[in-house]
Design goal:
By secondary structure, the protein is an all-alpha fold. It is built from 19 helices and no strands. The protein is globular and about 60 Å long. The model has no long low-confidence stretch (mean pLDDT about 85).
């Protein structure tokens, strides 16, 4: 086959397989399409089908095909993270800063500590720390991965549960938005390169000046032009952040976070996010699956994933329960919010992909974290839906 035909065959597999499993298996309640796509990426990768059928893997996912798929994956995930940055509502969080700060701080801090302790246990054994990773970077990275809440997936799940625009949904969005900022701040700290500190300082200074200019420009031009100029701004921020050693994903998030979502239109932004998820993000999920490895042994990877799942889920529920007691929430609020904040797929996968690219963690650590992210995300809807049915007033409770 010609390279184009092999590439299109790979695209056909990427889009067809997960969709058929999702639709024919009716998995939507416990495994929405996005989760099935992530699992599909793992199955199609070298750790599963690649090991069982090496000739298939070498033919379909050879170097030319992988190069083309990686290009699509990089740009698609930059677009996705940019929209996530746009969706941050820092102003609303500031208006309710005590309640938001206490809840977001405990919801992030407790699983961060629990995940860091789990990382220390893992590091007592070989095979989990990457060749370029200091121990503190690995511990902080794994801890942060256990504390992450994926804001875009949270939005999709709350739409499915019909609570996105309800008071409960808006509360949860505030908490997750504040934690999203912390995630990228911690990533910038982990990636801080003292040999490139001059470049990184220059990037931040230049970014501050460019932000002032781009905000003035976007206010002055029509909405259609804002979208196009916004994409130019995204590419420029991604390039300069990567040049400075902070990774292009940090630049992509910052590119969206400093802009106002209202300039782009809420309905249009929702459609844009859905288009990215539908049209190009499955390629990113596949490229993520291709990085899964079981080199330290399958049982060890699954044991690490189970340990991280306990630290992540238990830490998040415990942290939100503390917040509920401090803020005197009505009964049932903390449990529902704690489970809603378990959505980790996508943002956590992006986060640990960066750690893997920088060789801070190994492929085996990445695989364990990926399994944890998929499991915690799959728990969200089955745990929250019964709570909403038992307490119809839960969705209407603001703070």
């Amino acid at each position: 086959m010609a390279p184009t035909e092999v590439f299109l065959l790979a695209i056909l597999i990427i889009f067809t397989g997960p969709y058929l499993v999702w639709r024919l298996g009716r998995t939507d309640y416990w495994a929405p399409l996005v989760v099935v796509q992530i699992v599909g990426g793992i199955l199609l990768g070298p750790g599963i089908l690649g090991a069982l059928f090496p000739s298939y893997y070498a033919f379909v996912f050879g170097a030319p095909t992988l190069g083309a798929l990686n290009g699509i994956a990089w740009w698609s995930v930059m677009l996705f993270v940019w929209v996530a940055g746009l969706e941050l509502d820092v102003g609303e969080a500031w208006k309710r800063r005590r309640e938001t700060g206490v809840t977001a701080g405990l919801a992030l801090g407790v699983p961060l500590i629990a995940g860091s302790l789990a990382a220390l246990v893992m590091l007592r054994f070989p095979g989990w720390r990457g060749p370029e990773g200091a121990q503190w970077q690995v511990v902080l990275g794994i801890g942060m991965a256990c504390a992450v809440t994926a804001l875009p997936i949270l939005v999709l799940f709350m739409e499915k549960l019909a609570i996105l625009r309800a008071p409960l949904g808006q509360r949860v969005l505030r908490y997750a938005s504040l934690d999203d900022i912390a995630i990228w701040g911690v990533l910038a700290l982990i990636l801080l390169d003292w040999q490139r500190v001059g470049r990184q300082g220059g990037f931040l200074l230049g970014f501050a000046l460019a932000t002032w200019a781009i905000r003035r420009l976007l206010r002055a031009i029509p909405e259609n032009d804002r979208w196009y100029v916004g994409l130019i701004w995204l590419a420029a921020c991604g390039f300069t952040a990567d040049w400075a050693g902070l990774h292009f994903m940090v630049g992509a998030f910052l590119a969206g976070a400093v802009l106002d979502a209202r300039w782009f239109g809420e309905a249009r932004m929702d459609r844009f996010r859905q288009t990215i998820l539908l049209g190009v993000m499955p390629v990113y999920f596949l490229s993520t699956g291709l990085k899964t490895q079981w080199g330290v042994g399958g049982p060890a990877v699954f044991a690490a994933a189970a340990l991280l799942l306990v630290a992540s889920v238990g830490g998040k529920l415990l942290g939100v329960a503390f917040a509920g007691r401090v803020l005197r929430w009505p009964k049932g609020d903390a449990k529902a919010i704690g489970w809603l904040l378990q959505t980790k797929a996508l943002i956590m996968i992006i986060f640990v992909n960066i750690l893997l690219d920088k060789k801070i963690i190994t492929n085996e650590t990445f695989t364990a974290l990926l399994l944890m992210a998929v499991a915690s995300t799959m728990l969200t809807i089955p745990m929250v839906a019964p709570l909403l049915r038992r307490d119809p007033g839960l969705a209407k409770r603001g703070f």
